[in-house]
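Running low. Got one?
___
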Amino acid sequence: MMNIEPIATDKIWYLKRINLFQAMNRDEMMDLAQKTTMKNFRKKELIYLSGQPGEYLYLLKKGVVKISKLTADGRELTLALLKPGEIFGELEALGTGETGAQAEAHSDVIICVLRRKDLLDLMQMKPDLGIRLSKLIGFRRRIIENRMENLIFRNIPQRLAALFLELKEEFGRKEGDEITIGVPLTHEDLASLIGSARATVTEVLNDFKKQGILQAAGKIFIIKNIKLLEEMSC
C-alpha cells in the first residue's frame, strides 16, 4: 500500500532538475513544492490502473516505474521503463484520450505527486509549461509508435537486440569494454517489452550468450559485444 513520506528537505532541489519546471523562479518553485506530495510505492505495487481517472501528474524521484497495457489477447505489453527524473501520467491528467495504460513500481520507488487541478493552474500561469508538456507527450507517443512498429516488422532476435540497445541508452553503465544494464529484468519482463513468449526469449538469450553478445548475472544483463548486438538488431 502507498505510504505518504514526510516532506523532504531536498524537494525543491529535486523539482528544479525536472526539465518541465526549470523556467520557474524561486517563489514559484516553493509554491510548487508545497503543492506536491512525496509518496512511496513498494515493488510490484500498482500506482494507477488502466482507465482510472487522471487525477495526478507523477514525478519519479527514485527507482524504476513500468508503464504497460494489456493486448487484445490478454497479455501484458510493457510500453516503457522510466528512470528517476521522468514524469508520467500526463496523458491521463490532461485528458488527451484513453491510453489504456497502467503504471506499476518495477522496484521500490519514491514519487512526487502533483494534483491535476494544480497542474492546470500552473499551465495557465506559465504557458511555456504547457508547451513543454505537449512536446513531452509527442515524444512519448513517437517512442511507443516506434516500439509498435518493431513488434510488427522485426523478428524476435531483432526485437530483443534492439531492446538491449534501448536499455543501454537509458540504464547502461559502461565498465571497460562492457556495458551493464542497471535495472533488474526477468525473462518475463523482457518478453513483455518485446511482445513475445518467455520461453522464446529464453531461447534467444541463450543464443546471444553462446555468441558472446550478452552475459547474465541473475537479473542483471551485461552487454559483452556491442557491435554484434547492433548487427543483430538490423
Remarks:
- Residues 1-9 have pLDDT under 50 and may be disordered.
- The chain is about 45% helix and 25% strand.
